[in-house]
Design brief:
- It comes from Castor canadensis.
- This is Dopamine beta-hydroxylase isoform X1.
- By secondary structure, the protein is mainly beta.
- The chain has 6 helices and 37 strands.
- Strands 4, 5, 6, 7, 10, 11 and 37 form a 7-stranded antiparallel β-sheet that branches.
- The radius of gyration is 26 Å and the shape is globular.
Amino acid sequence: MGPGRREVVHSTWLEAVVKACGCREEPLSGQLLRDSAEGHQQGSAPPESPFPYHIPLDPEGALELSWNVSYVQKAIHFQLLVHGLKAGVLFGMSDRGELENADLVVLWTNGDSAYFADAWSDQKGQLHLDAQQDYQLLRAQGTSDGLSLLFKRPFATCDPQDYLIEDGTVHLVYGILKEPFRSLEAINTSGLQTGLQRVQLLKPEVPTPAMPADTRTMEIRSPDVLIPGQETTYWCYITELPQGFSRHHIVMYEAIVTEGNEALVHHMEVFQCAAEFESFPHFSGPCDSKMKPERLNYCRHVLAAWALGAKAFYYPEEAGLPFGGPGSSRYLRLEVHYHNPLKIQGRRDSSGIRLYYTSTLRQFDAGIMELGLVYTPVMAIPPQETAFILTGYCTDKCTQLALPPSGIHIFASQLHTHLTGRKVVTVLARDGQEKAIVNRDNHYSPHFQEIRMLKKIVSVYPGDVLITSCTYNTEDRKLATVGGFGILEEMCVNYVHYYPQTQLELCKSAVDAGFLQKYFHLVNRFNSEDVCTCPQASIPQQFASVPWNSFNRDVLKALYDFAPISMHCNKSSAVRFQGEWDLQPLPEIISMLEEPTPQCPNNQARSPGVPTVVSIGRGRG
């Protein structure tokens, strides 16, 4: 087939799809809007649009995805806009954004007919028709430059080839078909233009609180940055509040993205610098630049965090995040993550975050508390691990001492690890029994971090325990990965947003250092290679010399599961509450929460394992 013939086939197919979609119309009614807003314990309000959530899928903007969540139907309605449609498109989800072992929906043509089907890819990227068709095509409609597809998919299908849509990060994948294929099985993802985009699909729909009459705005924006022509850039910019800026409450914030850069600006955060320094040097440049002043590492208190697909973040009506005034630094750091896989040159950017704040202070100050592991090398992950778990504790002893009798109320959470983090979960336990999941992300990515509203506020009382576990993959590492601040070191943190604010800023743990030394001595007794246990050897050096056989791996896991811990029950990063915090026993958990069982749709509602045919013959003039 020559180039001219192929071009004719493409336009003929597009015309036929637009005129003669062999699919069932399902108008987006007010009922769908009501369904999508029901069932949210933090409150609900119908979204302002049938598709309130929107992201560009690819860096060129050829594919735009919008969606709506119905918690009543337990389904998502997707609208996919395809600009400059060629011969088809595939879209779907996978564990980490791979095109292999992916759950897909495909629109394609063989040159004569067009088809829409639920499919899956095997470990070689080969496509197969799914015996259970769980993506339902509702409408295909022509646009001025392409096609709009409307389809729906249940959260859970109980099909072994399908992805389970959960709270937390979802890795979306896409592919553009540039020529016809004789069959679905003839398509292999390795030959397509493909990519991935991370997003939280299951958004909680919380009420929009009324804004105070005296609300003002402040924009923290990058200063006309020339985006580097490389795939990943973290840009840091230091700015400052006006002299004499008094105490205010932040009540909302939203992203400002420079027009045309929607596909390049991946996520942004605003940090407040530490109050103990009178001033901070001004800086605008890559965060990993050797020119970046060392003092900027003390700008770590999160004020706002946005990631692709996130809408405006509102504080509960009764609380606001304090900033400004005595004891608060005037200096702020904006960090922007640019994702530029096409290495586009010459693009300038002034994206940032708009803060909405009031001088009429609300009833409660909101606070941010760090849960998880202390930044210390005593917590380490051996190399070549696929799913190694480390756990940090906020113990009953600390909450008993530091929380008010009426408790605190967690309404949002930001999970954080470095590059090897794969899953993060924080669980609330009371009287030895797990009671609630505070936040869980089974497909966590360190490249996609945002402050997420919780569907249900979690109340924590004196004597409760908060347990944060992180799962790591170090298959590509040759040495142990130790805890610490460096990007090649690891963290396990949940920044929980709560009210009313208490003095407790940090509630974290690490294994007792003396017990870790006993581990190194034991390794020496059972292995011919020596691990230096002399005082001058650092812990990273000791871990680097461990021969990582199965015995040493298993004993380290066992150590972390039973050894006493050192608790950091801190008022600030260096000041602990009074008490004995070393050699503390691990909290005893006698009853764990059961894993939720996916609720699957009725078998009778599923389509048989055949593609939806889009007839080419009908609708021609």
